[in-house]
Amino acid sequence: MKVGFALPQFHQQAFEVARAAEFARAAESAGAASLWVGDRNLAAVRPSVGYGGQGTTIPAELNPAADPFTLLAVAAGATAHVALGSHVLVAPLYPPVQLARSLTTIDRISGGRLLPGFGVGWSPEEYEAAGLDFTTRGARMDETLDALDAIWTQDPAGYRGNHLSVPLHHAPLKPARRPRPPFYLGGQSPRALRRVARRADGWLPFCVVPSWLDLDGLERQRAFVDAAAREAGREPSAIDSVLRVNIDAGTPSDRVADAVRTVGERTGIDHVMIDTTYSDEGVDQALERVSRILEGVRRG
């Protein structure tokens, strides 16, 4: 089982972002397999759509948010072996040229360790702030993936779609990983899971320990992805999975480790990332959890 951890980015840890390199080095030294960021461009005061597309509230833990690209770059320079992922970047919010440039830089700094994970997002206000139409986010995601693929594999590179375009331009600087970094995609809806099946190199599901660990649901969603992949002429085994594990406040680390082992045994998912954003902890407490969770998973 590969166990990764979220970098200091949200809630209390956002105010300790200067310790990101320290956290990254310590987590790698403790045996972490990967380090991760999320994405929150803003948390609206009066959101029309709530967290995860449900209700009309956003957790206060997401109000302070550090920049994901900067954090990944810091971690890339501070580590030597861990994978560096995003679970997830709201890709349609970013112009493809700028998104490709940032991720290419991070991948080259890290020597090819980038696992870029993307999602369409759920906040209309984030799209409003970017000057974009929220209702076209799915189509923009598909075109963003097409544009990234072109920029990362062609020189000169260009792309023209219905919602975005990239002029033909010189593109000699490519990511270290060839032919390109893998596309990981999040989502739980049938439409999102079909996109995973058609387009993704990996799927990014999530759970919450202990309040929402739906193993039956995870298995059903993965079966849906596998069936849709076969319909699209793809081999399901070519689609990786990395499970995000959010921790409820007050949850003991040994309970998190037990959940990680159970997930692996039941679903076959062999890579998880642990996020302590909602556990009301600073960087010191988060680093203590890194050691305790890794020890618990190994002990099991």
Could you describe the 3D structure shown?
By secondary structure, the protein is an alpha/beta fold. It has a single domain (2-299), classed as Alpha-Beta Barrel (TIM Barrel). 41% of the residues lie in helices and 17% in strands. It is built from 10 helices and 14 strands. It has helices at 11-14, 20-30, 68-78, 96-110, 124-129, 137-153, 190-199, 215-231, 253-267, 283-299; strands spanning 2-6, 34-37, 83-86, 89-90, 114-115, 117-119, 157-160, 165-169, 184-186, 202-204, 206-209, 240-241, 243-247, 271-275. The strands form 3 sheets. The protein has a 7-stranded parallel beta sheet with strand order 5-3-2-1-14-13-11. Strand 2, helix 3 and strand 3 (83-86) form a beta-alpha-beta unit. Helix 2 crosses helix 3, helix 4 crosses helix 6 and helix 9 packs across helix 10. The radius of gyration is 18 Å and the shape is globular. The model has no long low-confidence stretch (mean pLDDT 97).
